[in-house]
Amino acid sequence: MRFRDYKIFRIGCYYHIFNRGNNKQAIFLDSMDYMALLKRLKIVLGLYIDTQLRVHPLPKNSFSVISYCLMPNHFHFLIRQNTDVGIEKLIQKVITSYVMYFNRKYNRVGGLFQDAFKAKLVDNDRYAQYISAYIHNNPYNLDYDFSSYKDIVGLRNGQIADKNILLGWFNNNVEDYKKFVQGFSRKDKQQIIELLFEDEDDV
Hints:
This protein is α+β, with helices and mostly antiparallel strands. The protein has one domain: Alpha-Beta Plaits. The chain is built from 7 helices and 4 strands. The protein has a 4-stranded antiparallel beta sheet. A hairpin with a 2-residue loop joins β2 and β3. α1 (31-44) packs antiparallel against α2. It is globular.
């Protein structure tokens, strides 16, 4: 598995991470598949221990996941790199383990994802706010189970997303963040168009 532009990853920077299934195929076929990827993410982040899985954590607090969304054939993450451990190591561990799980479960071989994951630098907090709203609006319904929105607004007690960072941009006011996400518009999307990916529009 190859990783694009990994040398750009720097301490203290935010990145919008995206990938989709090979030939636009589904990468999650049932709810257990979504949970399998999230479980592996928690293990690599050092938030969860599962001795049955041969996947090991990276040093704790190496990353802060700001927001995420898993869709049937693609995923989005907004991640801050906190140390000199590169984001490519995080994604490699999670995805390699997930593809092994998926291939074993569905009796298949070979790659699951379209080439390498893609990453774009989000170079200021305002853009990061818009990216989080964009990610949370990826599903048609904010009540969607496989994004971090419910965790951020207090409807679920998830471990992955660091809501303190995200809500800190909104003076720790959950209602302000809800309004921001709910009001996200085509005009707002245009402000961050350079931080999105060409093939997102045809996933």
